[in-house]
Amino acid sequence: MEKNKPGRKAGEVMCEVLIEQAQKNKDILVLTSDSRGSASLKPYAEKFPEQIIEVGIAEQNLVGISAGLASSGRRPFAVSPAAFLTMRSIEQVKVDVSYSNTNVKLVGISGGNSYSDLGMSHHSLQDLAITRAIPNLEIFMPCDQFQTRKMFEYLAQSDKPAYIRIGKQVLKDCYDENIEFVPGKANVLKEGKDTAIIGSGETLNIAMEAAEWLEKDGISAKVIDMHTIKPLDDELIDEISQEYQQIFSIEEHSIFGGLGSAVSERVAQGGKAKLKIFGFPDEPAISGKQMEVFDYYGLTGEKIANEIKKILNS
Question: What domains, with CATH codes, occur in the chain?
């Protein structure tokens, strides 16, 4: 399959994988907070009505019940809008999931700026910052349908608690069905000799577009898919922070506490590279259509490429 062509929504692929896994393992359960529609889980609910629990708009209960089920040997996937799952129920995540190390998969749907026109209450631009600071949580962000499939196949077998952020967009394909997914091991999508751009999830296509714009001006940029935010691929970051004088990260998140912060924490321990973080500034994000908001904050391939050129030429 040709890459960078329109693919599918991550939620649709998640639903397919969960149906396949639930057929094999009756311990797999899905719990939702009045969110099965927006999570593309209606086919799962129709096929496995005995393996889905609707708790209503009660995210704290969602996480607590999931942790109790996990403690009883079940394998729950708690699916809820990321803005509420990682804010309203964060104490339950910290105590019931993290401290107790229970096998709960926390799936934050409509993450980042997906609910762009619904305002700050629905924006999820701090979720990585708070989940990164909680022990025992793996953190993942899939970038396309193929990676989503491999990731959820892994999650269905893993005994570790995790937070997974997915968005609402139809994702362009960055990979094909032969993709290998290794937790904590980033993938290099494009080699480059002048600089490196690190993306994750839905911003990976922006990183690829920026690299294409730079290529037109003779600048060769390596593009890295950091699909696992925690544990981070420290080895690859160490490598690029020694190889390049300047590197860049792009994220659909506040510039504080997310992917860029994670990378900078590692670079500061011994790398020589400077890091520029492209993300949402320290202010309530404006409301509007998602791509309009991205454009407003300069988070497009062309605008990021222009900023990179300025920095590299300064």
Answer: 6-172 (3.40.50.970), 187-313 (3.40.50.920)
Instruction: Measure the CA–CA gap between 29 and 215, rounded to whole angstroms.
Output: 46
Read off the pTM.
Answer: 0.95
Angstrom distance (rounded) from CA 187 to CA 51: 34
Q: What is the DSSP track for 91-160?
A: HHIIIIIIITT---EEEEESTBTTTGGG-GGG-BSSHHHHHHTSTT-EEE---SHHHHHHHHHHHHH--S
| Token reading at 107 | 């799936």
- Helices 204-216, 301-313: crossing angle, 10 deg rounding: 60
Whole-Å CA distances, 123 to 67, 108, 254, 261: 25, 12, 11, 19
One pLDDT digit (tens) per residue for the chain, 314 residues:
344 456 899 999 999 999 999 999 999 999 999 988 888 999 999 999 999 999 999 999 999 999 999 999 999 999 999 999 999 999 999 999 999 999 999 999 999 888 888 888 889 999 999 999 999 999 999 999 999 999 999 999 999 999 999 998 898 999 999 999 999 999 999 999 999 999 999 999 999 999 999 999 999 999 999 999 999 999 999 999 999 999 999 999 999 999 999 999 999 998 899 999 999 999 999 999 999 999 999 999 999 999 999 999 98
Q: From the centroid of its chain, how far is CA 277? A: 16
Strands 221-225 and 187-190 come out as antiparallel
